[in-house]
Amino acid sequence: MSGPVRFVMRNREKFLLVGYAIAILIFASLLSPMLGQAWQRAELTRALFQTRLLIGLSLEIIAVVLVSLFFGLLGLMILDTKKRFQGVLLFVGSIVGLLALSSMGLLLPNIDLFGNIQWVAAGLVVGGVVGGGRSILDVNSNGPREFRSASRAVYFLLSALMVVGFLEYHLEYPFPLEIARNEVVMEPVASEFAVVGESSELLMNAVLVGAFIVTTKRFVQYDAERDFFVLGPTGSGKSLFLVGAYLEALERFTQDDSETPLNPSQDLINLVGALDRQGDGWFVEATRAQELEDLHFQYVHGNVFPKNVEVSSLDYAGEWLEDIPDIIMGTEDADDPPNTLKRVADNVRQADTLILLIDSNRWLDDEPLEIEPYFDIVQATEEKNVILIATKADVLAEQFRSERGLDAQQYFPDFKEYVNEQLGTNQTVQSLLAQAGSASEIHPVYYQTTVDDSGERVPMRANGTVTTVGFDELLDMVGEN
Ligand SMILES: Nc1nc2c(ncn2[C@@H]2O[C@H](COP(=O)(O)OP(=O)(O)OP(=O)(O)O)[C@@H](O)[C@H]2O)c(=O)[nH]1
Ligand SMILES: [Mg+2]
């Protein structure tokens, strides 16, 4: 990756924030005039508002309640740590929109907020109840402060406003009712169905409304669910890879004072417990052939626009790898493949991201990588993201240090480049890179290791905890995916 690209990637969220801010200002200043005129033309919507006359409510009160309801919901969004920036952006946009409408003599100039303070309060209370529910009273709860319904309601209100505004602005239609005080009058129909406005204006407004809805939809999204599947031959480090990803998420959790729990699965905790020892060794045994472990957890990715990312995968014994393609493609010879294998294949099909492991140790020892089944699997399951991972890269890190005199952890981007060069010399790996797409790179991860008295590579432990490298970048990659 070149310098500027890396700079953008590292500051991705800040760029995104500036981009969103500009977009919201554009939406507010271009769409508000449309809304204003739509209101002046509106027949159906106006009639809906006129029904108030039947119960004798003034338009001013309705406007006061709706405006305070909306700002009450926005306020909740701003209180929600995950939606703070989005809330502020929408708040600024709404103010710009209100000012634009005021300059057309609409809304604010006609309402007296202070004179109707009881209705302002009513709107805010309704907003609080709709958006916060019971959790708003629960100040001391230690769960994450998420006001999901507030964000959803803001999204719903704004989208509805824009769509209705767009239709009222551009459509002319016969409307026979006139609602007056205490009565509904039939009117002779004056107009026919027609589209109002130039086609260029129509197109531009349609694009703006569409883009606005997509943007606000992204604003109110909390979760990015990722269904992974980690593929690798026997002993390639599948189980430890998933444990490493979880340990990294756990470290972030403790560092960031995050409130969102990781919710690890029981199987994952069992694996973590196995690794968590004082003595030398891995203590994580080879996954047994009949065993399937459901490993999942979630973490929060991003500071400006945080999102919950749910990582889930199934851990299985590496022996199955070579049988997976046959099952997926339906070319299995055996009449009745084992259940475990069927479930593995099902999960590969369901996953949206395949994580393919390449064992650095095997490469260094010139042993067969046994990654040939990846080709069939990637081909049989089109339209999946593919992430290539070099596991056990500590052996390459050592080589990197002796060749370049650099520490792999400190110079991680250079190390990653080095790993790609080294592994790329293998023909099969090269073909795999080509298969996975032009932009694909191999991402190295490893546990810091030392060689013990009997010549075995064992994880380094400081007070019982292992140190991992590359998983931090991995979580970022996965979160942005
Ligand atoms: N040097 C080094 N060795 C590792 C690393 N990760 C895993 N290993 C070694 O690889 C072995 C297998 O790791 P596992 O995670 O159990 O591999 P697996 O793919 O789940 O294996 P199966 O369950 O048998 O398919 C471990 O016992 C370690 O000896 C690493 O980061 N560095
Ligand atoms: Mg395993």
Automatic annotation (TrEMBL):
| Protein keywords | Membrane, Transmembrane, Transmembrane helix
Answer yes or no on keyword Transmembrane helix.
yes
Transmembrane ranges? Answer: 15-35, 55-76, 88-111, 117-137, 149-167
Q: Which InterPro entries match?
A: P-loop_NTPase (IPR027417)
Domain of life of the native organism: Archaea
Specify the protein name.
Answer: Uncharacterized protein
Organism, scientific name: Candidatus Halobonum tyrrellensis G22
